[in-house]
TrEMBL record:
It comes from Leptospira kemamanensis. This is EAL domain-containing protein. SUPFAM superfamilies: EAL domain-like, Nucleotide cyclase, PYP-like sensor domain (PAS domain). CDD domains: EAL, GGDEF, PAS. InterPro entries: Biofilm_reg_signaling, EAL_dom, EAL_sf, GGDEF_dom, Nucleotide_cyclase, PAS, PAS-assoc_C, PAS-like_dom_sf. Residues 558-812 form the EAL domain. Residues 332-384 form the PAC domain. Residues 416-549 form the GGDEF domain.
Length: 818
């Protein structure tokens, strides 16, 4: 064959004729061939030029023909058939050229003939399109000439007579077109002293004017260029009316004072610097002292720093970014910290915007500064919460583990030990319940203060949450020394605490693990000290216990729970409870959190705090998580059929689930299996679970986010609080931990933390939910702070599914009547 380069798209079919066609076409070296299941599924943007479509004459032939006419009108197509095609059939579905290939009459010669004809059709179409484009350009140019708002004339270069003029010339000059044509163009233009050669090289003549029929002089700028017209060279003269420009120049003068007034009254500081980085303008926000502002004219930041007694970093930083803006000719943005001689700290977000002054041909820089002190202090507070306990000021679990890992890594001595102490306050729940959370918090703060007084610089003391504390001591000489320190802690914490007019006596139970004998990792040592602490409690509390091999017996209980838990999944002993979430805007149920409950056939209800950690450690949590997901999807489908209002159902996700490579696909498959909207499911995870495998977490939730599944960050502010990972995880909802809500109406620090978290969430476009809301005062404060949703015993405890459905209907109906 003598075909040129064309691309053939052939529709697949399960017959011998298709295989023969594909083989013959593939043997044509100059052709590219692509097969596809159906022409109706081709994406319009994916087809190359010079395309020929081959598709089968079936029940959808007319739809295919319509599809090609709409999306690929320049491409011919060929009808394929295993039987002979009659003229009547071809007239209905074939290309206007009746291109077709039928198996009874097929030969390579016919294929060659059809494809060559198709190729010529493509070439004709391309030429036709090119010709149409040329005609369009000509029409456009004619329209541009005729409809231009500038006065356009075509002038004979020999006679200087006007050959043609546009509508604008007729309107402005007040002459008819036949009165303009034939006149020398100088008739309309006052004499201008200019070199004739330059005149026709396209030079602009400013401050010239045109004279109309009524004698009115019209200020213009004009240009003259040689250009071919109908095969001959002609002068194209363009005259632009600049009356408005001159008027604008006057307006600019008037507006200058107006704009300076605006700049002087902006809340942000504004300054203008010249190419030497010298100040030419500053507004009152930049410098409130008017005398210093006058003094600063033509001065630099070096002079300003000396005048205001600022550190050298002030002008060094500004100079560095000014030089970047000048070199790159781009806007530069940076944050700066300014501390004056009174130690007042101000954070500014500054921009340097380079501009080119058309009059002086010099570069200038607009300096734009916004005070972000309040935002920075809020961010620093949140960052502080990432590593320190907000209540006591002690290290939190994250910082403790980091210090522990460093100590284990750097401990080389074989003569000293690392001691891990883990303890909690005996009967602390009774103290909270009987005296109130406020006094409980004060007790925790006082415990933290006493612990700080007995720590050395190299020791680490942390609050893990609730009433749990941990201490790390390095270079402990021996076990006796470790015991002496433990007794010291017991003694100082057994002294009475004077809280709000009364003395409160407490005791603690402590477990101790020593490295390297009891473990070589922080996780192992914390686990063993935790086991030892529970042994101390069993022995009567108010004492300490070293980790010993006997404590392995305690793990047998965990093994029993683990085995029972595996049977619980098989025997369907797990039950899903739901706790409603209430919108602060609509006062309607806007979601629910799915919570797992276990009813053991012998022990009855097993507390989640007892079996969830076992499930996490053993990996059973993955199977439980899959069951919860499937059960939640089943419920959502059932509720849809029952016409229960649609809202997201939150499912808690563990770090173990995130570690699975196919977990996100399992979530997608389950949602598709039940045919529910992905937005009906919300995945709730803690910051610590993200950090177990941050990269996999980011990858999994990026995939699920594209499907429309919401992501909620649970217990925000108590874990890692990594803002960088929070951004990468692309979260939709932040859940404020109950520890910041429990005394919200009484504790100003809690209110400040909640406000900072909510403001940060708003700025990131995230929704906020607060858990643990127990009274109306907390609800009202959260509403005023801008919290979107609340969850807690104020409305409902976690309910079985049937009771939850009744609650939703009753609550929503009650809310509508209010």
């Amino acid at each position: 064959m003598s075909l040129k380069q064309i691309t053939i798209y052939i529709e697949e079919a399960e017959n011998d004729f298709y295989n023969r066609l594909l083989r013959d076409i593939t043997n044509i070296e100059t052709c590219h061939v692509h097969s596809f299941p159906s022409i109706l599924k081709i994406k319009p943007g994916s087809i190359q030029e010079s395309a020929v479509f081959l598709f089968w004459n079936d029940s959808k032939a007319m739809d295919k023909q319509k599809f090609i006419f709409e999306h690929f009108p320049e491409s011919p197509y060929v009808i394929l058939s295993t039987i002979a095609l009659t003229p009547e059939v071809l007239s209905q579905v074939a290309h206007p050229t009746c291109l077709h290939l039928a198996e009874p009459s097929y030969s390579i010669g016919n294929l060659d003939l059809v494809l060559n004809f198709a190729e010529r059709l493509i070439e004709d179409m391309i030429r036709s399109i090119a010709y149409d484009k040329i005609r369009e350009k000509v029409v456009v140019l004619e329209n541009v000439f005729e409809e231009s708002l500038d006065i356009l004339m075509q002038i004979d270069p020999t006679t200087k007579q006007i050959i043609n003029a546009n509508k604008q010339a007729v309107v402005v000059l007040e002459y008819r077109l036949d009165e303009i044509i034939g006149k020398e163009f100088s008739f309309f233009i006052p004499p201008v002293e200019i070199d004739e050669d330059e005149e026709f090289q396209g030079n602009l003549i400013e401050s010239s004017s045109l004279r109309s029929k009524s004698g009115r002089l019209i200020p213009t700028e004009s240009s003259f260029r040689l250009f071919p017209v109908n095969g001959k060279m002609a002068i194209w003269a363009t005259f632009r009316d600049i009356t408005e420009r001159k008027r604008s120049q006057e307006q600019v003068k008037n507006q200058k004072a107006f704009y300076e007034f605006i700049l002087d009254n902006l809340d942000s500081d504004i300054a203008v610097l010249n190419s030497n980085f010298e100040y030419e303008y500053t507004n009152p926000v930049f410098l409130s002292n008017k005398e210093i502002r006058k003094w600063l004219y033509k001065k630099t930041d070096v002079d300003l720093a000396e005048k205001l007694d600022l550190a050298p970093e002030f002008y060094e930083t500004r100079k560095k970014y000014l030089e970047v803006a000048a070199k790159e000719n781009e806007i530069v943005e940076f944050e700066e910290l300014i501390q004056d001689h009174n130690d007042k700290v101000t954070y500014l977000l500054r921009k340097y915007i380079p501009i080119d002054d058309s009059e002086t041909k010099q570069k200038r820089f607009i300096s734009f500064g916004v005070d972000i002190t309040e935002r920075k202090l809020s961010e620093e507070r949140i960052t502080y919460l990432a590593y320190y306990d907000a209540l006591t000021g002690l290290s939190n679990r994250t910082l403790f583990i980091d210090h522990a890992n460093q100590a284990l890594k750097n401990h080389k001595s074989t003569e000293t030990l690392l001691a891990f102490y883990f303890f909690d306050i005996d009967n602390f729940k009774f103290i909270n319940d009987s005296l109130g959370h406020t006094k409980g918090d004060i007790l925790l703060q006082m415990v933290g203060a006493r612990l700080k007084r007995v720590m050395t610089e190299v020791d680490t003391v942390a609050r893990f949450g609730g009433d749990e504390f941990a201490i790390l001591k390095v270079d402990v000489p021996n076990k006796s020394a470790a015991a002496e320190f433990a007794q010291k802690i017991l003694d100082i914490l057994s002294q009475p605490f004077h809280i709000m007019g009364r003395d409160l006596f407490t005791t603690i139970s402590m477990g101790i693990a020593l490295s390297p004998n009891d473990g070589v990792t922080s996780a192992e040592l914390l686990k063993n000290s935790d086991m030892a602490m529970y042994k101390a409690k069993e022995l009567g509390r108010n004492n300490y216990k070293f980790y010993t091999y006997e404590l392995i017996l305690r793990s047998e209980k965990r093994l029993y729970i683990e085995n029972s838990l595996r049977k619980a999944i098989q025997n369907e002993e797990l039950i899903l409870f739901l706790q409603p979430k209430i919108s602060t805007i609509t006062n309607q149920v806007c979601g629910a959190e799915a919570l797992i409950r276990w009813k053991h056939p012998e022990r009855g209800w097993v507390p989640p705090i007892e079996f969830i950690p076992v499930a996490e450690d053993s990996g059973i949590i993955e199977r439980i998580g899959d069951w919860v997901l499937e059960e939640a999807c089943r419920l959502k489908k059932q509720w849809t059929e029952m016409d229960i209002p649609s809202f997201p159902l939150s499912i808690n996700v563990s770090g173990k689930q995130l570690a699975r490579s196919n977990w996100s696909h399992r979530v997608q498959a389950t949602i598709l299996q039940y045919g529910i909207n992905p937005e009906e499911i919300e995945l709730e995870l803690t910051e610590s679970s993200i950090m177990e495998n941050p990269e996999k977490s980011i990858e999994a939730f990026a995939y699920l986010s594209e499907l429309g599944i919401k992501v909620s960050i649970d217990d925000f502010g108590t874990g890692y609080s990594s803002l960088s990972y929070l951004k990468k995880i692309d979260a939709d909802v932040i859940k404020i931990d109950r520890s910041f809500v429990v005394d919200l109406e009484l504790n100003e620090d809690d209110r400040a933390i909640c406000k900072a978290i909510i403001n940060m969430a708003h700025s990131l476009g995230l929704e906020v939910i607060a858990e643990g809301v127990e009274n109306a005062a907390q609800r009202d404060l959260l509403h005023d702070l801008g919290c979107h949703m609340i969850q807690g015993y104020l409305y409902s405890k976690p309910l079985p599914v049937e009771e939850f459905v009744v609650f939703v209907k009753k609550f929503n109906e009650s809310a509508k009547t209010k």
